[in-house]
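Troubleshooting entry. The earlier prediction with uridine-5'-diphosphate gave an output that would not parse, so I re-checked the input for stray whitespace and re-submitted. Clean input:
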Amino acid sequence: METPKLTHVVLVSSPGLGHLIPAVELAKRFVLLYNFKVTVIAVTSQTSRAETQILDSVLTPSLCHLIDIPSPDITAFVAQNDAVVTRLCVVMREARPAIRSVLSEITPRPSAVIVDLFSTETIPIARELNILGYVFIASHAWMLALLLYSPVLDELVEGQYVDQTEPIKIPGCKPVRPEDVLDPMLDRNDRQYTEYLKLANGVLQSDGVLVNTWEELQREELEVLREGGALSEALNMKIPIYAVGPLVREPLLETNSSTELLVRWLDQQPSKSVVYVSFGSGGTVSSEQMKELAWGLELSEQRFVWVVRPPTEGVADAAFFTTGSSGIDEVGKYLPEGFVSRTSEVGLLVLEWAQQVTILGHRSIGGFLSHCGWGSTLESVTNGVPLIAWPLYAEQRMNAALVAEGLGLAVRPRVLPTKKVVRREEIAEMVREVIEGVEGVKGNRVRERVKELQKSAMKAVSKCGSSYVALSQLANRIAG
Ligand code: UDP
């Protein structure tokens, strides 16, 4: 009897946990749902324990084949103050020879390679090797629309985007406020802008795009991107768009001792009474902001878990390549005097990195003060946790606009945290607003919306749901 052909898919992830985690989740789906052989090529920064933990999670039990390519040395190609986007693009460009040799030598011959946004220069290699090439956008469809339309905006818009007096129009989509554009669009003279435009063109060279969203969440944006849609027409775009999300992690089964302590503490707190504060894998705030945040949490008189990092001045993504090296004494220097002892009954500080999905899945969590990275946003929604939107870098200002104003899942400060310090009174007010049952604060619409969208998300990924069907269509195409 003939053995059935084994379909092999290769995923390529650039450095950064916000890139690696969704790639690994997608990899798992192909293995568990379609029995594909999956190889993950992870270009890693090799600096974080968290990264190792995520990589281990695909190896135990052994679900995927993993090829870890250490980030190539790029010091000769970038300036010291080059932005994260520039660095990521250069790292992935320099990693091309290593990726090419894997793709050409690995067996069985891959049917498809799925790359993340920063790895789009792998698509021409796939094409040369006669392998289908897809891009997986670990973000949402509105961001994808802005990205793809940016080369056109580059022709149409004069001057800096942030200086425009009118919102930036995308055919068929909600316009984007000038202050909400993606980081690489903030300064058109910076190298990251040129790199970003190349990424946009790179996506259009692919055989299709996977997006970590779902039909019911972003129907309008998805429609404009598809054949016949206003944006697709404007760009003469013919590639299929697969909404396959939300792809999020399950709480980890393996925990370390600090997580066990944390979970034991959470177990003792009333249901939905704790606000979780985290700025993702790379976010940092100024020392003044850190103090105000501490005062705000204290003033709110609510329980909290706060993932703390040493502050930085003027850079909001300072921990992107370097998570995990400070000590509590170092961080403590930046907190208001006596804060730790005064809040010891109601608050927990976690250094640098926490097992976020385990925390968000705990019944005592009632709100998430988040930098609005898309991964964190989806983890919040799928756990039914309302957000306080605190955007810092990358596409997070757009995410915050989407979740707060567009979807009604979040409250947000009146000022943009990267422009002005958010004051303690406002922080306390927002915390009290999202936490259920605070005296004097009425039941919030935000909490109800999160519940609605949690249901819709679960439905989308369950059997016959829209994202399940989209992924099956893609899997069929790949399997030929
Ligand atoms: N994360 C975590 N612990 C932390 C910070 C982040 O587990 O202390 C995880 C989080 O659960 C998410 C990812 O790291 O899956 C961050 O991705 P996201 O898109 O939210 O933001 P980014 O870090 O890429 O800005």
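This one parsed fine. Residues 17-34 form the longest helix (18 residues).
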